[in-house]
Amino acid sequence: MKSTGVVRKVDQLGRIVVPKELRRTLGIENGDPLEIFMEENRIILKKYNAQGACAVTGEITNENKDYAPGLTLSPKGAALLLEQLKSNATDESH
Question: Domain locations in the chain?
Fold first, then answer.
């Protein structure tokens, strides 16, 4: 386990603040759900990835499709990804 050197106190309501640098590094945005695990005397926080959630938007809809192992996309997410891929291909050809 890697130490970050960051220490936070638990407030009266049992909350702690996850430092901005760690959230940025782990891709955790405001409002993102976190899973909480216990392992012996440790509490482990992990960004929650709902089964069937779009990898781009995080949406869970009946229209989501699995495109590859571990890659689920909503129609909106697929459109955003395709747009980004086309944009990158255009940028590289210039």
Answer: 10-48, 52-94
